[in-house]
Fold this sequence. Notes:
The chain is α+β, with helices and mostly antiparallel strands. The chain has helices at about 20-25, 40-50, 80-90, 115-120, 150-165, 190-205, 250-270, 300-310, and strands at about 60-65, 95-100, 130-135, 140-145, 175-180, 215-220, 230-235, 240, 290-295.
Amino acid sequence: MLTLAPTFACRRSPTRLIPACHYTAIRQFTSSTPQTLSPASSTSDAGSFSLAGTAPYHTAYVLLHTHLPPAEYPARSRSPLWRAFTMRARQWGGVVNFVWSPEMHKHPDYRGLGEDLEAKHQDGSEKYTASVFSIAHRHGRLEIPEVSLANLDEVDHRLRKLVLSGDELDKLDRRLHLFVCTHGSRDCRCGEGGGEVARALRRELDKRGLGEKDVVLGEVAHVGGHKYAANVLVYPYGDWLGMVQDFDVPRILDEILAWHAAQKEQLQLARSTAQPDAPVEQLPPLCPHFWRGRMGLDKDEQVQLLSKAL
């Protein structure tokens, strides 16, 4: 475990003392003048009203499966494969990150983050299984059995063609995926707040009897926006939520599960009537007052979409 360099202090938003009142306050917020919040919650909640537009524009999100959680990651990756993949993915709007989850397969010959990459793997022997979410198949997850420097050209060509062509795939993992940034060595706000939210999500899923056949819960490395911790990414739809705290989890999970069920029904209806799926810019924001943005939308589109919803 790497220790945190003493270059910053972990400054999180003040704890909101009355969760029920907090949630009621933000649910009553409209496009008119905001209501006055309690002193304990005003700092953190006021920021959540203007989160739209803070999610980076991307058309695909690629996650390399690791055998260690982000709490064990170094502050910055030195992975040659991640660097090469990131440079290529930018050309077709992709973002590449690392993920850990007990429910996600690891490569049988895993060699990657968490090992001594500089000493052992300069020969290009890093190997990961990868998950891909994109606007071309935004109702499910595509799994790539192996990504390495040796086959990166092939993987890049396949994903570029998939994202740019917009072809829907049949064999997809259509479970709901929730990813929390818990990369504490990059910023302790993510490690502390993200860790609390990840644990709260696990407890709530267990309480509701939702296992890996229903929902996949994972932890990811740096996503951008430390000050919005805890960050929760909801895929396959690509909605990013920020400034989530552990006591927000039950209500947020209610919305996410309802959204997921509605999207599944909409997909079945579209297929049965041979109608095209609704564009991402027409779907309302998920959990509006925590909503940072959505895959496939740029900053202006994110802000405009939220303004229509409030």
